[in-house]
Backbone:
């Protein structure tokens, strides 16, 4: 599945690809003053690649012929930034090598090499399966193996079967719903329906009432947003680094906090850079527009890691997070927008996730990593009732624009 390849955790000095000739090897290197070295070999050792990550480059060569596989554009290797981890992708079918830092995707590639498309190269690459870590690489920590190699840019926008076109598939601009992992398909099916909307027959002015509550001093949304000004930075309050969390249902132990959360983003408000506790998630825009920045990993170094991609989602759009992709982001309702953004976000751990990390790690006002325990500002039923009451009691003439 695109963006959701099968993976296995690995440990020790030797591990194996799930399928010969393809896959992604993830690892950490704590001591970047030392190179990290590993080989990928056939079972009979007749074909081997030696891979070396240094501080300034990635070096790959054929151990039998000593032929180097050079990427002339490669000027990066091990990173001094905290939180960095690394990956190496082998793709025998397309005869392609990639390496990168952070999430495994084309956006984070720092080394690539394309073999000549000849049968001999493909046959040799298809035999590679055993990964051995050099004894010199004591600080290299293997993390996991992905079954599928990195091949395409991963789409962020989900489309249902009824909306999907042949051109969508050809251009790779949308992720088919069927390609989501089982957990995210479940979440998608819960929130993607035509009746899962904000302004329903029960309260057709719901979004207007929320806007009114945000802009009016003394009303619930306005007051609550002011109270949350120091939520993410105790010493450096920021009234714009706030949003409202309205929860639907209860915490049933399958997600960080309550699995369904309606988030309210006034114009110009944003979240800190944060991750999602290795949980899966599906996000739908119910009203307005939301701007997203994606980061390869969560870094609290002084010179933090820049975003690798930005995206804009409008009302009706649905996007996704997996345990290994789109995990670190920042959301913002841009100052140039004209209305509040309201999203529904739903979370669920993978079935084989036994850690159930209950926090979202985020960067505070000083750029330091902190833990945020997902909470609730109000439950949805009570919130809707509150908005109805405020809307019904508004002065008729003063707020005619609503």
Residues:
């Amino acid at each position: 599945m695109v963006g959701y390849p099968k993976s296995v955790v690995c440990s020790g000095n030797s591990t194996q690809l799930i399928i010969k000739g393809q896959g992604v090897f993830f690892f950490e290197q704590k001591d970047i003053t030392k190179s990290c070295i590993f080989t990928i070999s056939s079972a009979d050792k007749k074909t081997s690649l030696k891979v070396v990550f240094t501080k300034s480059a990635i070096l790959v060569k054929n151990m039998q012929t000593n032929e180097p596989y050079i990427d002339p554009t490669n000027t990066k290797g091990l990173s001094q930034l905290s939180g960095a981890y690394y990956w190496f992708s082998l793709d025998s079918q397309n005869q392609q090598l990639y390496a990168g830092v952070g999430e495994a995707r084309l956006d984070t590639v720092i080394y690539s090499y394309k073999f000549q498309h000849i049968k001999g190269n493909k046959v040799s690459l298809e035999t590679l399966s055993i990964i051995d870590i050099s004894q010199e690489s004591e600080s290299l920590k293997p993390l996991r193996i992905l079954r599928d190699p990195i091949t395409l840019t991963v789409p962020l926008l989900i489309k249902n079967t009824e909306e999907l076109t042949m051109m969508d598939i050809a251009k790779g601009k949308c992720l088919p719903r069927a390609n989501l992992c089982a957990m995210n398909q479940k979440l998608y099916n819960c929130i993607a329906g035509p009746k899962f909307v904000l302004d329903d027959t029960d309260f057709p002015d719901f979004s207007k009432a929320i806007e009114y509550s945000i802009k009016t001093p003394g009303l619930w949304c306005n007051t609550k947003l002011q109270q949350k000004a120091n939520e993410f930075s105790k010493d450096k309050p920021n009234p714009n680094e706030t949003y409202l969390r309205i929860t639907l249902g209860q915490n049933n132990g399958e997600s960080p906090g309550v699995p369904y959360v309606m988030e309210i983003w006034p114009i110009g408000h944003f979240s800190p850079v944060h991750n999602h506790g290795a949980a899966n998630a599906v996000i739908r825009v119910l009203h307005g527009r939301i701007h997203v920045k994606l980061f390869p990993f969560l870094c609290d170094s002084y010179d933090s890691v820049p975003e690798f991609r930005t995206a804009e989602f409008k009302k009706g759009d649905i996007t996704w997070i997996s345990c290994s992709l789109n995990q670190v982001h920042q959301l913002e309702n841009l100052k140039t927008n004209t209305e509040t953004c309201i999203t529904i976000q739903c979370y669920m751990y993978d079935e084989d996730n036994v850690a159930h990390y209950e926090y979202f790690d985020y960067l505070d006002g000083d750029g330091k990593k902190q833990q945020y325990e997902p909470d609730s500002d109000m439950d949805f039923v009570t919130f809707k009732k509150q908005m109805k009451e405020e809307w019904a009691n508004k002065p008729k003439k003063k707020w005619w624009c609503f």
User: Anything to note?
Assistant: DSSP finds six helices and 24 strands in the chain.
